[in-house]
Amino acid sequence: MRHQQLIDSPEYKAEFGHWDVVELPEDQQINAIHAALLPTGRLLIIAGSGNDRAQFDAGTFRSLIYDPVTGQTRTVLTPADMFCAGHAFLSDGRLLVAGGTQRYEVLEGDVRLAAGAMRVKNEFPDAGRDFPEGTEFVAPDGKSYRATNAFTVPPAQKEIARDGSATVTASETVVWVEAEVEGAPGVTADPAQYAITGLTGADAENFYGLAEDMDLDKQDYQGIADSFEFDPVTEEYVRVGDMVHERWYPSLTPLSDGTVLSVSGLDGTGQILPGQNEVYDPATKTWTERPDLFRYFPTYPALFQTAEPGELFYTGSSTGYGPAEEGRVPGFWRLGDNTFEPVPGLRDPDMMETSGSVWAGPVQDQRMLVVGGGGVGESPLSTARTDVIDLTAEQPAYTPGPDLPQPTRYPNVVTLPTDEILIAGGSRDYRGKGQSHIFEASLYTPSSNTLRPAAESSVGRDYHSAGVLLPNGQVVVMGGDALFSDPLNTRDAEFEHRLEIYTPPYLFHGERPQITDAPAAVALGETMTVATPDAPRIDRARLIRPSAATHVTDLEQRSVALDVERRPDGTLGLTVPGEATLVPPGFYMLFLVDDEGTPSVARWVQVT
């Protein structure tokens, strides 16, 4: 009782902020795997199958629209299993969602049907062919296997030399196949060429399968190539061109030219892609593979567009899959010549999986912060480390930041209008084992590189959780997918459906500044006129890009400092930087912050 009185007191709230729990109606509760703030101010929460095999087997895929102002919700028709997809905002405010789940993992010992990857070849250059799910492949020894999904094999490539001679290179599509009989009789270690049942004549010669072996080993999750644009106005998914490669756990990084780079992920056979990266063009709504950008990263790598055109920074953060010794070093990836420059100084470099990454302060400062993390895979190791790097330094290197209150995996890291960064949630052990959830929250100040305590949350968060800044300056945190519900790890946990709203201290400091008028759009490099009755006390203005978060990864959020001019008529002139590398075109929340550090409610502005 006394504790509740303390945390509800005005003095406590003004220093530490306050958390409120929100429970949605039971029929509207959703496994919040992905969360994105739309330019309408509503949240798109994506579960897909929600890490629930029963939902996957039933073909039940879910998305939910949540309005944080009214509390109203609406279920959205979800045409594919977007569980563990990647996403990025486009310049028109649509959310690109690509990849997802083709198949759930099957642990060793539970595998009944021998299976493996079948490379399906086509030596005919004039036509490809579609094959249905269940297509049968037969080995020379009579063993037969069936495709678990429909697939398409494109035409072979034909090149004509100057002398008129032709060279034909067979095309290839990889598909997962399973034995038609259970157990050991379906196992083979012999590489073979497989005939495709039902093909005759030239087709039987041109189309065939190649496989190395079929076994009963563990089968990992498998990705899909499906891609959609979510329209924030109609609140519907619109199908666009498929990715070149199936991907599960990919990162989609917005580039300064408005295109989106898709990196990493598990393919359609459950293998991590060794480096095939591709680019989405919103103008044509198609993906193009970029062999010139062939580079390996672990799944969900944290890749950010820097101030330099054609340059991304890999913080070292990732989530999910990939060997511990490969692709873990942070550094600059220069797309022009596909070179990679490592950066030194990172502490606990072997504990960057499930760590958070975020711009530290306005993006013009070009400083990045990494937060917490743990060992690769199901490791019990975690770290309290925060490190900071100045990307503009003559020799960029990580330097120490303040330690978190305790070692933390899965932190939700959210940029606030005041430039502070909220760090909340997570667990000490893998997926909350041993009831290791962390309720302590912190506020990081980039200008002083310091950490101070915030109010403690009351709901444990870990894997499959997300934190998102709202236009009113609050933060909504959702999700949580612990393995167990007891300290001895004997009882399975249920997915956490409660939301929590964090109200930062700045909203308990008195009257907020107001924006009474602002343009709906502004071009790069332009100055916009903003009306406010509080112009004399406005200290700063920020554009904040809305979040699209999943798996401790949010490649969207960035804060942009605007030059502020106080005009004789009482309005403000706010100048947007001219570089698309700093301000990728799209929708932003415009905040005014007064001299007491209190932000306005945001206005949406589209930067063109």
TrEMBL record:
<dbReference type="InterPro" id="IPR037293">
    <property type="entry name" value="Gal_Oxidase_central_sf"/>
</dbReference>
<dbReference type="InterPro" id="IPR014756">
    <property type="entry name" value="Ig_E-set"/>
</dbReference>
<feature type="domain" description="Galactose oxidase-like Early set">
    <location>
        <begin position="512"/>
        <end position="607"/>
    </location>
</feature>
<dbReference type="GO" id="GO:0005975">
    <property type="term" value="P:carbohydrate metabolic process"/>
</dbReference>
<protein>
    <submittedName>
        <fullName>DUF1929 domain-containing protein</fullName>
    </submittedName>
</protein>
<dbReference type="InterPro" id="IPR011043">
    <property type="entry name" value="Gal_Oxase/kelch_b-propeller"/>
</dbReference>
<dbReference type="InterPro" id="IPR015202">
    <property type="entry name" value="GO-like_E_set"/>
</dbReference>
<dbReference type="InterPro" id="IPR013783">
    <property type="entry name" value="Ig-like_fold"/>
</dbReference>
<dbReference type="Pfam" id="PF09118">
    <property type="entry name" value="GO-like_E_set"/>
</dbReference>
<feature type="domain" description="GlxA-like beta barrel">
    <location>
        <begin position="114"/>
        <end position="213"/>
    </location>
</feature>
<dbReference type="InterPro" id="IPR049305">
    <property type="entry name" value="GlxA-like_b-barrel"/>
</dbReference>
<dbReference type="Pfam" id="PF21110">
    <property type="entry name" value="GlxA"/>
</dbReference>
